[in-house]
Amino acid sequence: MSELTTAQPTGTPTWIDLGIPDLDRAMAFYGALFGWEFDVGPEETGRYTLCLLRGRPVAAIMPNPDPDATEFWWNLYFATDDCDATVARAEAAGGAVLSGSMDVMDQGRMAIIRDPAGAQFGLWQARAHIGCQIVNEPNALLRNDLITAEPGRARDFYTAVFDYTLDSDPNMPDADFTFLRRPDGHEIGGIVGDPTAGKSRWTTLFQVEDCDVTARRAADAGGAATEPFDMVYGRLAEITDPFGATFSVGAPLGS
User: How open is the CA angle 139-227-211, to the nearest 5 degrees?
Assistant: First the structure.
């Protein structure tokens, strides 16, 4: 188990949330898929709802504030110990500030950035809310990778903002894939160069105990799933929730 009680180091994926048209339907789907329970927020927070695993927050869902939205995806937030300073670094590296630094009650300080390749992400400076309190185990966040047609621009940007170092992946010599590592050497995710990618986006991968069972569960709960497949790091499937938001689930090979 990987339970966290303190904020993650700067540059670490620390929180994910999703805006959807129907909160009750989303809770039914994700509850059936991952066994999550939910703490529905009050109206003044936009019914921002914490998704709980063993009583600890692992994600959040909420009614989408844009009633005309037709596209939905899991939003990624990187930890920072100084939101304002990281926003300044992002601007200097060519990023666009979509929402400047703001306090979220006593929970933390946040901003929304778009990188030069077009991918959007958030920053989270933790206070009362440290982010995901369970990671890297079944039914919790495992990793995030950026898929983009402009991997060079993305690599330059994220190394400038978070001081990442870059590593190629010898296990996938035919793929344009770069590991991103914090200054302490810890891998936080990667950048996938895909010339066919229509829009740059950070993806979300949840760990599960059994990929095939989870894929069937997604379909039974009103979503859809690709046929699970094996790759060097595990068995994966792509899930589409009832609103069209996509994410991946994965289990170690042989599990």
Answer: 25
Task: Name the one residue in this structure whose structure tokens are 């990281």.
Answer: 86
Of 19, 32, 31, 111, nearest to 67 (Cα)? 19
CATH number (domain holding residue 229): 3.10.180.10
- In this structure, the strands spanning 205-207 and 246-251 are parallel
Per-residue pLDDT of the chain (255 residues; tens, 9 = 90+): 589 999 999 999 999 999 999 999 999 999 999 999 999 999 999 999 999 999 999 999 999 988 888 999 999 999 999 999 999 999 999 999 999 999 999 999 999 999 999 999 999 999 999 999 999 999 999 999 999 999 999 999 999 999 999 998 887 777 899 999 999 999 999 999 999 999 999 999 999 999 999 999 999 999 999 999 999 889 999 999 999 999 999 999 876
Instruction: Decide which of 93, 126, 159 is a domain's last residue.
Output: 126
Written as six digits, the tokens of 69 are 């939205």
Same domain, 170 and 92: no
Tell me which residue range forms the domain holding 210.
140-251
Torsion region of 63: left, alpha or beta (phi above 0 gives left; psi -120 to 50 gives alpha)? beta
Distances from the Cα of 83 to the Cαs of 49, 93, 99, 128, 143, in angstroms?
23, 15, 12, 15, 22
Residues 6+ apart with CB under 8 A from 242: 22, 25, 26, 29, 221, 222, 223
My answer on whether 117 and 169 are in the same domain is no
Beta-strand pair 108-114/120-126? antiparallel
